Amino acid sequence: MEGNVTCLLIDDDTDDQELFQYALKQVFPDVNCTFASSGPEAVSILKDDHFTVPDYIFMDWHMPYMDANECIPLLRNAAELEETSIFILSGIEPLITQETISNLGIKRILRKQASVESLSDELFKAIKEAG
């Protein structure tokens, strides 16, 4: 990855946020990651004029207040996200149709991994695949 790469993780579990950041930094040490604990918080972050639109967004599918299905269209309306790859990061495989994945512009669904090494591998593959 060239230059400063940025990502936004939307996950209500702070332990998962810490694990994600640690795993991501194992494969991309210079990544700059911002965290939101809910969909509404993520929308607010993206509406901030001082916030740089992230290169990648990772989000948990199941969250309180607003799940990813509701959140993604709001994120896309809040910021210029045409170039931003959105990934779902979930502990269980979400019940989601291929049509919904396509309509929401989700690049890939990733399973949360039990080990840092496995999560690092998944994140590396996903980001490299997205380009």
From TrEMBL:
<feature type="domain" description="Response regulatory">
    <location>
        <begin position="6"/>
        <end position="127"/>
    </location>
</feature>
<dbReference type="InterPro" id="IPR011006">
    <property type="entry name" value="CheY-like_superfamily"/>
</dbReference>
<dbReference type="Pfam" id="PF00072">
    <property type="entry name" value="Response_reg"/>
</dbReference>
<dbReference type="InterPro" id="IPR001789">
    <property type="entry name" value="Sig_transdc_resp-reg_receiver"/>
</dbReference>
<keyword id="KW-0597">Phosphoprotein</keyword>
<feature type="modified residue" description="4-aspartylphosphate">
    <location>
        <position position="60"/>
    </location>
</feature>
<protein>
    <submittedName>
        <fullName>Response regulator</fullName>
    </submittedName>
</protein>
<dbReference type="GO" id="GO:0000160">
    <property type="term" value="P:phosphorelay signal transduction system"/>
</dbReference>
<dbReference type="InterPro" id="IPR050595">
    <property type="entry name" value="Bact_response_regulator"/>
</dbReference>
